[in-house]
Amino acid sequence: MTDVLLPLAIAVPIVAATLPIALGLRYDDVGWPIAAVATTAVVGIAAAIAAEVAVGGRLSHALGTYQPPIGIELVADPLSAAVLALIALVSLATLAFSRVAGPRGNPFYSAYLLLVGGLSGMALTGDLFNMFVFLEIVGITTYALIAADRSGASAYASLKYLVVGTVGASLYLVGVGYAFLATGTLNMVDMREQILAQAGYGDPLIQASYALIVAGLALKIALFPVHTWQPDAYQRAPDAVTAVVAALVSTTSAYALIRVTYTVFTVDFLAANDAITTAMLVVSGASILAGSVLAAMQSDLKRMFAYSSVAQFGMIGAAIALANETALLGGIVHLIGHGLLKFGLFLGIGTLALGYGVRRIEDAASAAREAPFTAGAIALLGLGLVGIPPSVGFLGKWYIGVGAVESSMAGAGPAGIGIAAVIFVSTLFTLSYVARLIERFYFAGVGLPGGRADEAAADHGGDPAGGPSDDPAGVVADGGDDSGDGETPAGGAPVAPVAGAPRPSLVPDRVPPASLAVLLVTALVTVALGFAGFALAEWFGPFLTEVFA
Amino acid sequence: MNPILTSLPPYVVLAAAAFLVLGLPRRAGHVAAALATAFVFAQAVLLGDGGTGTHLATRLFGFDVVLFNVDQFSLLMGVVVGFLATAAVLYAYGTEAPKWVTAFALVYVSSTLGTIYAGDWLTLIFFWELMAVTSTLLVWQYGGAAVRAGYRYALFHGIGGTFFLGAVVVHGASMLGSVPAAEIFLFSSTTGIHASATVLAAIGVGVNCGFIFLHTWLPDTYPRPHVAASVFLSVFTTKTAAYVMYRTFPEGGMWLAYLGGFMAVYGAFFALLQYDPRRLLSYHIQAQLGYMLAGFGLATYVGEFAVTGGFAHLFNNVLYKSLLFMAVGVVIYRTGVEDIRDMGGLWREMPVTFLVYVVGAASITAVPGFNGFISKGMVIDSAHEVHNYVLLLDGGLLWWLLILGGVGTFMSFIKLGYYVFFHGSATLSPKDATPFQTVGMLLAGGACVFFGVFYTQLIELMPFTELILSEDVYFKPYSTSHLTESAALLVAGFVGFFALKRPLGWLAHRMRDVDAVTYPAAFYLGRASVWGVTELWAAVDRAVMRLVAAVKRTAMHPRAAVAGLGVDVEIRTGIGRSVLFLTLAAGVALFAFLLG
Description:
The structure holds 2 protein chains of 2 kinds.
Chain A: H1 5-24, H2 31-56, E1 59-62, E2 73-76, H3 78-101, H4 106-124, H5 128-146, H6 152-183, H7 188-199, H8 204-221, H9 229-236, H10 239-272, H11 274-297, H12 301-322, H13 325-356, H14 367-370, H15 372-386, H16 392-409, H17 415-442, H18 452-457, H19 513-530, H20 533-547
Chain B: H1 3-7, H2 10-23, H3 26-47, E1 53-60, E2 63-70, H4 72-94, H5 99-116, H6 121-140, H7 145-175, H8 198-209, H9 217-221, H10 227-248, H11 254-272, H12 277-297, H13 304-335, H14 346-349, H15 351-364, H16 371-384, H17 397-421, H18 435-453, H19 455-461, H20 465-469, H21 480-508, H22 515-556, H23 558-564, H24 575-595
Antiparallel strand pairs in B: 1-2
Helix pairs in contact in B: 2-3, 2-5, 3-4, 3-5, 4-5, 4-10, 4-13, 4-18, 5-6, 5-10, 6-7, 7-8, 8-10, 10-12, 10-13, 11-12, 11-17, 12-13, 12-16, 12-17, 13-15, 13-16, 13-18, 15-17, 15-18, 16-17, 16-18, 17-21, 18-19, 22-23
């Protein structure tokens, strides 16, 4: 069975990645249109793949003239189709933001398209070594993108990621090498059979192989304690890069872990090796707790949500290690849902930074008054991250929690209950930092002379990014309070638009309208998916049935 | 038996009549009200002929309840409440009571009847609390000084009602297991309230009974509202409380009997010190309740005779106490004066009122020929059989207390009559009672005389009739010894009053009741507790906020916090340390997976 759509999903962005460089010799600023066309095409291809998977089930395609298991196979099943769809949509949506926020230039878009191609390849490949290749493509383009704005801090963050990321990928490669030694094959499905036929689940080679693969992927996913590259990278990268990297790179790595664990090593391997699942659960629990606590400690918005990702991926790691149908469904739903939520949050933070210069939580006072739609969407996404229904964030956490309790009930020891408790504690921490943000947005700075009309007269020297607006007329004349120049409370001055901030016609928010639209759609999609619990369970049903058969 | 009589609870009729009073013109409304109360009376009389039983038994919230429980006790209450309410409605009409007063009074009587006809503790406590609410409304309606007094009244009855509610809950909880769960609140399941709820019930009902120290709401509230409202208030709450006290403790107890004895003395003594006529009468409510409780308290020690004496006294008290409030009310209504020292010589101006007052006073002081003589004699006879703490004349402490209370009653009614109707020449020349006031007073007064003369009719209405009228019990009210006793009390009263007039007058200006201490104490206690709670909460708030701030400071600036401990380290992980962590993690994973 061959399907040409699968190689197209990889080849289109990678081939398109050469065009900005090549055409850039003659034209300036061709990167964005090329990227837009290419990612739109990927969206179409992903939709077509999803439709075919929905109708016909598993798709596969043998690359080149060699047939699997010798040749490289591309495979699409419900799980990889869903991840591919997320990759396609997020990479297209990010372009709406990067057009106004930068980074600009043709080389950036070449790297961007290469990243999309690498991510698609990771989602579709059915070959372990091929996955390493795409993992490296993703890694290298990510290093480049993080440093794309050429600041010192981002260069350091990029270098840090480069060093540890390379070591992590190498660990993965060593793990794959061990497995290859034991089985003599690299094709995932074939290796599953060969492990049973040639080695068995207790073989030290197989166990060492899994240990190294997990360690390598854990670094790419950024689980505690090997998360150290991630907060720096997310914080220092340009906003558009943060949005796409936070939404896709760790997500695709976590997808790879699910794929390797359940398609190659299988549930029986986990069941046969209690120590492995226990160790993974401990690490996941530590990741959930540490990530939540560290996130609650932050003041920088991007760094705060970066640590939050450490906690959320801890939950997904726990779902993988619980080896339980409900928990794995929760893990997959949370994988997709968290990708959407984080994309929306980083997009919202970037949008707010673009319009108002807000970088830290203290700067965001009264953002809801100045930018009601942007702040409202961020608040909605934040509450989704906490897990307040109806939101996809609730669904994922709920399934994981239920699965954890189920596994304990089924006699798998107290670890499941422990994970459920840790998830609950983490939810409280998440609530604490999201509530801090919402408090800033909606309640801080009340009663200050915050209207833009006042700012023309009053000096806002205290605001490092904003400064006084050069707009004497004022768009929202009713923004001014009658409280006059009262004593400034600890909350600080309300947000003020930066010089030259866009002025959309429909909304009071002084932010780019296209990225605001994307932000609002993302927020609504996360809520809509919250109602789709049964549909999601049905979509991933075939995959779950297959791995738990 | 006519099914309408057994299926139509009287309180529903009265509640409907209350709306009619509000909706109809004043005259028609009062006609409707009088008809409704007369129906209550007639229904109770007719049900006495074989109508007893538990009617309207149903189930609420999973518990069996009886909404219309007709037995000997509730019937006698129904008879007297219906009769007196009719007289009081007529009196209210003659006293220009506003529609709202009569309407509230009817709702209040309605809740009283609900309490009386309750056949289980849930129904009882429901109507009991309702009675507190409706009587408070009746007080508040008058406005002015009645509002603050009504507020104190509401506090008292709210607290008492809560105690009683607690008693009912404890009773129900204690009954679980001994009877089917649905029947735990039925009267028929037990004799009185469960022993575990004794103290709660005694305090809860005791507030309404005017136990000493719990009685201050009585003289505080009853002098303040409309005179017609006082007539209603003076009889229903306290007498229903005495009835409920019997329901709660049908076997009595010496504590109850002695408490009654002391209440008789205490109430009569403080009544002697009063110059506000309605306040004086209010203290006598407490004294008279003492006689009833003494009778109920001797239920086991003496037997059914004492209980019958208590109920007969209750029955008679409803008649003469309201009669006295009516007579005094007429004087206040006509003169507008509420201090008896400013009255005097009115017997010429208001002969009808004077006559009625004499009937009421003769009844309450137990003069032969009036109903109080019969029932008080029964209670005192019962007390004479108690020989604990024997003092003079072969009489025990209880007997002496009741006798002393009797003397005090004589003295205070001589005082009241002397000041109002004699006491120099008339400085005021008011008109006499209005026709409808006269009708109301004649109904109540006629009953007082009737039951004093035809006392077997009184016994017919009581429980245990056959026993009292049989040869086994010595029941001769007009025996020589009783007449002598009464004459001695009368003489003692006259001598005592005129001998002690001056010292009592001196005392009246100096001796205050316990409310002089309890009200300020309650006020400052309440203020202190509000202050204490507020300040405690503020302290907790401050402490929590300080803790949160410290945690936040440490979390936000961990390096500064660590530096504060004298350690200066870089907390952020650089590249080298990151690689170290990764290597360690991979090593640990290998170690764990291979050796695990």
